[in-house]
Amino acid sequence: MIKAQHLAVIAIRRVLAGKNLTEVLQEIWQSNPLLSHQQQGAIQDLSYGVLRYYGQLNALLNLLLDNTLQDLKLRYLLLVSLYQLQYSKAPSYAIVDHAVSTARILSNKRGAPGLVNAVLRNFIRNSSALCEQVSSDIGKYSHPQWWINKLRKQYPNHYKTILNASNQHPAMTLRVNVRKIGVKAYQEMLEEHGIKADLIWDAALKLAQPLSIEKLPGFKDGLMSIQDAGAQLAAPLLDVHEGMHVLDACAAPGGKSTHLMELAQIKLTAIDSNAQRLKRVAENFERLGNEPHRLVCGDALYPSEWWDGQAFDRILADVPCSASGVVSRHPDIKWLRRQTDLSLFASNQENILNALWKILKREGKLLYITCSIFHEENLILIKEFLKSHQDARLLPLSHSDMVNGQLLPSSLHDGFFYALLCKT
Ligand SMILES: C[S@@+](CC[C@H](N)C(=O)[O-])C[C@H]1O[C@@H](n2cnc3c(N)ncnc32)[C@H](O)[C@@H]1O
Question: Structurally, what CATH architecture does the domain formed by 2-136 represent?
Answer without folding.
Answer: Orthogonal Bundle (1.10)
